[in-house]
Amino acid sequence: MKLGIAGKHALVCGASKGLGRGCAEALAAEGVNVTLVARTEAPLLRTADEIRASYGVTVTTVACDITTPEGRAAALAACPSPDILVNNAGGPPAGDFRDWSREDWIRALDANMLTPIELIKATVDGMMERGFGRIVNITSSAVKAPIAELGLSNGARSGLTGFVAGLARKTVAHNVTINNILPGMFDTDRLASLMKSRANQQGLSVDEARARIAHGIPAQRFGRPEEFGALCAFLCSAYAGYITGQNLLIDGGNYPGVF
User: Fold this and answer.
1) Torsion region of 145: left, alpha or beta (phi above 0 gives left; psi -120 to 50 gives alpha)
2) What's the CA gap between 17 and 23, in Å, rounded?
3) pLDDT band at residue 190 using 50, 70 and 90 as cut-offs
4) Rounded distance, CA 207 to CA 62, Å?
């Protein structure tokens, strides 16, 4: 299925690996030119080279910390008028809320709530003027089913979700949609970090912890970044203009609720 977005320009954050890279690859496969943002230059350049070779699109890279004003300025200088924005930043560390300081909370809010809002603020008016825009925020299944040790993430990402719920109803008349994708457990570096933490807590090897948790997912496995990317690409497509303000779970059936 051709998604009708060939030739568009996308700004993809956290794009050197994991879910961000999955989104960048899926968009590039549809002919979208991509600006890839990540903190570490070497893996970012490798990813860019591989996407160029595979899909023949224009790929620009910006090595920066997107959670800082300087990083956002650099990303927007490289891609000042994106048609597509994929917001993505690594989640804050796990832990006990009793140990978190005000500074820990501010860092979590900066990364997982305020940075996406700032990037939306910088790009959404231009999208509305041009009559096309797709904004996808990568959040977490914890927005629907909070994970106790991820309280920093639960709080910050839920704040972003509430903000998007209001704004998305104001932009859709201009063919600009804003949606959130809520990943469950995907086979990424973030999952590896969480598995190490769980293994230490439970006195297991990392492989044992992985197997135990995967067995508890109805799909009996962890998700693949390319599966996530495919969902992102559809939400960014010409055919998704009637989908906005939604929180789409992709978690292998792990969330047990009806709504």
Assistant:
1) beta
2) 10
3) confident
4) 35
